[in-house]
Each structure stands twice: as C-alpha cells, then as structure tokens.
Amino acid sequence: MAGQEIYQASTTAPVNIAVVKYWGKRDPKLNLPTNSSISVTLSQSDLRTHTTAACSSKFPSEDTLLLNSSPQDTSGARTQACFRELRSLRSALEASDFSLPKISSLPLRIVSENNFPTAAGLASSAAGFAALVRAIADLYQLPASPTELSRIARQGSGSACRSLFGGYVAWQMGTKDDGSDSLAVEVAPASHWPTMRALILVVSAEKKGVSSTSGMQITVATSELFQRRAEVVVPKHMSEMEEAIKAKDFEKFGKVTMMESNSFHSVCSDTFPPIFYLNDVSKAAIRVVEDINKKAGKIIAAYTFDAGPNAVIYYEEENTAAVAGVVKGALEGLDGWQSREIESQDAGNLDARAV
Ligand code: DP6
C-alpha cells in the first residue's frame, strides 16, 4: 500500500473539429460508432482542457472531479468506464513490478479547466475526456500509445478519442463487438499542412438544446436518410477526405468538409422530431463563405458546424484577408453575434483563430 503521499500529473488536450462527422452509435454503452470520422485538431493555446489528476490515501474515499471549479458527478457510466479501464492497466503494472507504489485503488481527485464555452458545440467533451484519460494515464505511468488511450477516451465521449493526437486524425469505426478495433489513428501531423487555418465563429456560448448523445440516438431510431449517410455517403467522404489531406488539396478538402456538414445537418432535420442546430447567424455564415468562394472562382473557405450554431471556417494562410477579414466584416452587427478573436501558434497543432 502507498503511504500518505499525493501522486499527481497534469496535461492538456486540444479541441478537435470533425470534417467527416461521427453521428450515430451502434453500441451506446461502449460508444461504438455507426461510421468512421476524421477531424482536425485545433491549437492548444486557445481551445483546450487542462487537467490535473491526483490520488492519495489522504483523500476522501470517493473519486472527485471539478470542472471549471464546479463539482461533477463521477458516478456516470462514461467516467466510471474510463476510471475502471485505467485502474485495471495500472493494477496490471503493479502486479508485474513490485517496486511500483500501489496507487491503483486510491481515490482520484481530478481538476479540469476549459478555456472555451462548455457544451456549446465546441467539442468540450472531446478535449475534456481526452485530458482526463491522459492525465490519469500519466499519473499511473502507463506505457500506452495515443491509439491505445483512444480506446479508453472513446468510452468517455466518442469524439474524445480523436483529441489524443494533433493534426489530422481518423477514428476508425472498427467491426468488433468489444470495440477493441474502434480506435483513433493519425492521418497526417499538423506539420504536413502548416498553412491550414481555422476561424471559429462563436455565434452562441449557451449550452446546446439537444445533446449530441441523445440527438444521435433519436436520429438512428427515426431517420431513414441516416442509413444512406452511414453506408454510402460517409465511406465516400472518408476516402475523399484522406486523399485531400494527403495531397494538401484545399479545394477537395473544402468541398468534402462542406458537403459533410450539410449531410450531417440534413439527417438532423430528417430526425423525428427534427433537430435544428443552425440558427440564422449560422446560415448567414454559410452564405458569406459561398460568396467568398464565388468571388475567388474556387473553394478557398469551408464551413462546418457540429451540434450547435457555432461555425468553424477552414482556409489557408495565404487567403487570411479574403476569408477571415471578409467573414468578420460581413457578420459584425448581426443579432446574436458575439465577437471573440483568438490567434495563436502551437507546435504540433493547427493554428486557430476564433472570432
Ligand atoms: C457532431 O462525441 O459529443 O461533434 O460520444 O455521445 O459523447 P458522445 O458524442 P460526441 O459527439 C460529437 C458529434 C459531432 C461530430 C464529431 O465530432 O464527429
């Protein structure tokens, strides 16, 4: 048994924004998806979760989790699944090396801070669970790769498995019932396409109306369009997107990104009762991007929306003025529009600029 020491590790995990969307679970308990997905990881300096995991025999016997200073329930199945998996890996290490302190059964104290709105369609659960899993894995000194940890983070929140990597990341849906092959892998590091930029339009920082978890369950149960999306549309977009990223072909990347976002929001509208995540400002942003591309005579900007009205617009650095400048100018003054600008550079991850 370990003594009275406090063991501690801290880490950060970035937000990722899917360009081929995860929407639908074939196994809600293990968070196994109905289709594969691809995301781009954003800069850690602006959009990230910072998490410290600690354990000690001095702590009260219950595991605790503070998010942005408010106590969270740790008894939920998702958090419990992550704790259980990580504890069991640590306990296997302790069994194989008697010199290691026995800390796997000590109460955990987790403290997390997000520097962006929680649950407003900015993938907070992705960064949150990725940081939680990596902080505990570091605390337990597990020799696990990001792909191995992605199997655990996925059980916290599906999209979290992609936040264990920087750059361009695919979550392969896998085929096994136990989820052992439903994992995240790197498609390309951020350094492969260093001119890629993202503009984040914080249209609303309020919590979203229908959570991703329940929204996708209702879609799977009621939308006929959904099956075609999962079986035909997404597999096509997956291979086109991988090709576009590998070839650094922005026109192709942009076209698939926008068509994917449209396809995802179409199955949301085809859900019964329908789910609407986009608002008037989101739709205005789509029109602005269309005008920018029309004026340029090619695709130089691409929008995408998750389960909320906030837009992410991808573009290449050389088009900063033609995209970021124009979007801001066109949308400023619209009702419900919040302006927030972030610009940063972060090694290993995509430069993000939020307006
Ligand atoms: C629209 O990962 O939040 O952002 O697995 O239930 O936690 P759970 O869902 P979550 O869903 C993300 C949905 C999305 C698309 C995506 O990120 O791929």
UniProtKB/TrEMBL annotation:
InterPro entries hit by this protein: GHMP_kinase_C_sf, Mev_decarb, Mev_diP_decarb, MVD-like_N, Mvd1_C, Ribosomal_Su5_D2-typ_SF, Ribsml_uS5_D2-typ_fold_subgr
Record field: catalytic activity: (R)-5-diphosphomevalonate + ATP = isopentenyl diphosphate + ADP + phosphate + CO2
Biological pathway: Isoprenoid biosynthesis; isopentenyl diphosphate biosynthesis via mevalonate pathway; isopentenyl diphosphate from (R)-mevalonate: step 3/3
One annotated GO molecular function: ATP binding
Keywords: ATP-binding, Kinase, Lipid biosynthesis, Lipid metabolism, Lyase, Nucleotide-binding, Steroid biosynthesis, Steroid metabolism, Sterol biosynthesis, Sterol metabolism, Transferase
All copies of domain Diphosphomevalonate decarboxylase-like N-terminal, residue ranges: 13-184
Name of the top EC class for this enzyme: lyase
Domain of life: Eukaryota
Any GO CC annotation of this UniProt entry: cytosol
GO BP terms, alphabetized: ergosterol biosynthetic process; isopentenyl diphosphate biosynthetic process, mevalonate pathway
Mvd1 C-terminal domain residues: 198-355
Acetylation in keyword set: no
Pfam family of the protein (one): MDD_C
Enzyme Commission identifier(s): 4.1.1.33
PANTHER family, alphabetized: DIPHOSPHOMEVALONATE DECARBOXYLASE
Family statement drawn from the similarity comment of this UniProt entry: Belongs to the diphosphomevalonate decarboxylase family.
Protein name according to UniProt: Diphosphomevalonate decarboxylase
Species per Swiss-Prot/TrEMBL record: Glarea lozoyensis (strain ATCC 20868 / MF5171)
Lineage: Eukaryota, Fungi, Dikarya, Ascomycota, Pezizomycotina
